[in-house]
Amino acid sequence: AQKVTQAQTEISVVEKEDVTLDCVYETRDTTYYLFWYKQPPSGELVFLIRRNSFDEQNEISGRYSWNFQKSTSSFNFTITASQVVDSAVYFCALSEGAGTNFGNEKLTFGTGTRLTIIP
Amino acid sequence: DAGITQSPRYKITETGRQVTLMCHQTWSHSYMFWYRQDLGHGLRLIYYSAAADITDKGEVPDGYVVSRSKTENFPLTLESATRSQTSVYFCASSDLGLPSVTDTQYFGPGTRLTVL
Fold first, then answer.
1. DSSP character string of A47-84
2. How far is A78 from A65, CA to CA, in rounded Å?
3. Residue-level pLDDT at B84
4. With contact defined as beta carbons under 8 Å apart, do A18 and A81 qualify?
5. Among B42, B88, B96, beta carbon nearest to A110
6. B36: nearest Cα among B95, B110, B116
7. Per-residue pLDDT for A36 more than 90?
8. Partner residue facing B107 (CB), from A4, A44, A103
9. Which residues sit opposite B56 in a β-bridge?
10. Which residue ranges of chain B lie beneath pLDDT 50?
11. How many CB pairs lie under 8 A apart between chains A and B?
12. What is the pLDDT of residue A103?
């Protein structure tokens, strides 16, 4: 069975510091998809990134970057120069892609990391 | 407006009552999902549906019933609500076919259910 572990329950950093959120996953499939979602205090789930298991290239989007390492089954998320608006709960999720839906099937979520940015 | 909507957004009910949470999407997505979110558990899949009239259990299906007579609707029913079903419920949808790198499941705004 697939599993996602986010060992960091809560993290607090001072504004402008960099912070890394860890995500470790388990799956028996060779084809799978990894996701990060942000849940701000308003409660909605905001999609951040999708990565398939064949693409280990790191991704950078503005202040956000993701480090995917199959050797350690990790998909870590770094926020550079954090801002108060980054305060949220962040979820890592996994979808096995053995079916025909290319990873759009059911997601297994980690328990989330609550990130607080202190002004 | 296009998108995925849930109703009601907030619901308070009593133990033993039947409650139905509604989910509606306007994209004609094939897949629809119900998750519940609880502290310490993240989001857990309750049921999902690959198409109209096709549903399957997720991780935590006990005490819930779903139906999908139309592609755009996926109601979730708690037949006899219990306090342990107090949670935030999210509906989601996704499409078939090769997705772009930005494709994902699209989530509704959530329904906060309290069972007294």
1. EEEEEETT----EEETTEEEEEEGGGTEEEEEESS--G
2. 5
3. 96
4. yes
5. B42
6. B110
7. yes
8. A44
9. B48
10. none
11. 62
12. 47
